[in-house]
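Appendix B, record 7
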Amino acid sequence: VDSAPRFKAVQDKDGKWYAQGVRLQTEKVSLVNRRLQSLETKAMEVQTTSACEPAGEEQEGDGQALIDFLRVAAPLVERELGLAWNSLPAFDAYEPLWGEAGESCDVTLEVWKDGLVDLQVTSVVWNCTGSTLACAFGRLDTLGWCEDSAPVCLWNAFRPQLTPSEPEITIDVNGFVMCLAFHPTQPGVLAGGTYNGELMIWNVAEGGFDPLVAASSIDDYFHREAIQSVEWIPADLSGGADAYLLATVSGDGKVLIWDARENDLSLPARGFSLLSSREKKRVLGGRCLSFSPLDPWLFVVGCETGTLMRAFRPPPAASMGKPLGPYSWKPSAIALLDQIAANSARLQLQHHVEAHCRTTGAKEVTAEVVFQSKPDPAVLFPEPRRTDLEAHAGAVTVAAFSPFHRKMLLTASIDGSVKIFDVLQQRAFMTFFPPSKHLSTCAVSAAAWSASRPCVFAVAMEMGGVYVYDLMKSRQEPVFELPLAGSGGQCVTSLAFNPKMLRLLAVADTRGRTRVFRLPFTLSEQQKTEAAYMSQLMGSSK
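Structure tokens (predicted):
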């Protein structure tokens, strides 16, 4: 027990006593430093001599012996190198063991959006990197005025935390989108054509609340019916990342080309009218559109009547100059004049617009003023230079150029036939009829070329079934059928091959679901002689 006093008695000057506390000092606190983790380094020199210092004593060589050796050996080596140009390359005779490759076909992904009732997938596309899958929802049986609204949904197909029923990006649309197309070089830029006739561009890479970048309006000189197909096409041959235009086709009988770089889709840059070759005033409704990826001035349009027309858009040419007169024609208006080849039609449009300016008091003529003057659509959007190919017996649902050959064209129709054309020939050189139980259920709803094999394409039937053709194995029958039974809907609406993951094929159906199938290895690995075989097919078509 501590016996030290806690206080002491103190007497003040008046003689009174009182208690006073005592301050005690505790023992000094001792501190000890301990290093819990230390890092020791040790340098070791691997090369004991410097780079410029010789490793040993310099050896004297026999230069004459080396010269004598090269004099004998050099001719032999040169002769063998010369023979190597004409000899069989080392691996040309190598043939993979296809039996050991994966021949199974299974579903790797299935996506949908919760809360959508009685909506179908109207279009499915991959972006240029092959990582993002975009699906447009709607109702393909809509007739007349559209009262439904359906979104466009995007999934990152290879994200580990992917939730199939919850898209990463949902874009709300007034009405619904009929067709989609990703930009060829910018993976976040997506274009879509709506049932109401509007063209929209979204940039989903910016991450904003509203990804809408530009949208067209509805006008007598724009699309008045559903846009059936949209496609990015090169503006010129420069190949720049921004040098792309948009081409659309609609049931109103117009092919319009838009330049989003100039006017944010407020006006089309140029257009063409689809007219019957027999009755010039009869408008043909467009159903599908395809531009040659290797010849950007060549395109094909499939129509509702079964007509299939090959057409050309004129390449950019030198301007004919600014019209003379009291009105100042701006470059945007001059560009509309320059697309009219006939001088009489050009003068007719010029006089019509200037008469409108006199009425309204306008002094400057812009592209907006040209459209506000309400010229004759046949003058503003002339008929393209065209040639009719062999027609289908029903509406053409698919027209797709081969990504490997500038002249090979794949078409399909509700008549149940699939044709392959050399676009320089009027008649198809190959015709297929995919299997169908009944004649009334033979309509083809979608078809697409493989992104990896020139001789492979897939065909989807409206009432069920997806068949893959390989022209190297059979020129009559499909070589593979996707296992749709038991894994979802049978009625397929859209197909899309992945441009990077070459074995993946996206299949959309009427139940609002999209499945991604992994195809057998032999259907995605290009054969050595495949390009030559395709050229042989095209040569035999003449």
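Remarks on this record: Residues 63-84 form the longest helix (22 residues). The chain is about 15% helix and 30% strand.
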